[in-house]
């Protein structure tokens, strides 16, 4: 996620003007989970400040410090005190699920399996952990980012686990990547006759490992936008489709086409905001046209005729004039600037 991850925890990058992690916590809360352990590393202070005690999501958050990135299996191991002997849900914080977790959790409880894995048919499963099934649908092999995948079933990064996993993460060795892999722990369980099942993802799944993934997640999330005009939209502006203009936002002599969200304190002046665009809090969009993009808080776009498929970091500045028919595509980190010649 460079350049953004230099200054911001990946899990706090926005999808529809809310950090990815906020969507995760909302899904977890809706599934019925009330006690949440958040494993944090070097960006722990940012995450603590953003999430707090979890009350805004209807959950109680306990933080577990992982001083070095030693893998998901290691994260489970160091969370033993928090988890106790309860069944639990493991959700990687950089995943976005369109339909949430409620059905997965319900089926996992009913299954009686020692572990349940949420999976998705992937075009390139070698980027992910991969599950191989037998003829009855049971998992017989789990591999982490295999060079030659035995199936296309990618592990989404959501697991329903029983306390049996604790012995597994204590028993498996560190991988060649220098990590305790959750996939190795799952294979340890399978090899000892424990039952591991899968559930397919319903709706879209986005693993936000890169800018394109975040833009995809933004498109998916904005598909659920409802029309709500809380801000100040003047009579010379047009609003078409599902648009959320937050309280404190100002829209003047502009055209908005949904789905899109305009954050609090943002100013849209003499501009066109096209569909699948998120404008963050305090942004200024003036004399410009922008679409299918994410603009983080306090960024400014001025006199740019065609900005599309872009992700702009906090307090970045993009200025024109620009009249290029094909449009411009930019990826800017926090506090960066760009000048576009005509």
Automatic annotation (TrEMBL):
<protein>
    <submittedName>
        <fullName>Glucose-1-phosphate thymidylyltransferase</fullName>
    </submittedName>
</protein>
<dbReference type="Pfam" id="PF00483">
    <property type="entry name" value="NTP_transferase"/>
</dbReference>
<dbReference type="InterPro" id="IPR005908">
    <property type="entry name" value="G1P_thy_trans_l"/>
</dbReference>
<dbReference type="InterPro" id="IPR029044">
    <property type="entry name" value="Nucleotide-diphossugar_trans"/>
</dbReference>
<dbReference type="InterPro" id="IPR005835">
    <property type="entry name" value="NTP_transferase_dom"/>
</dbReference>
<feature type="domain" description="Nucleotidyl transferase">
    <location>
        <begin position="2"/>
        <end position="219"/>
    </location>
</feature>
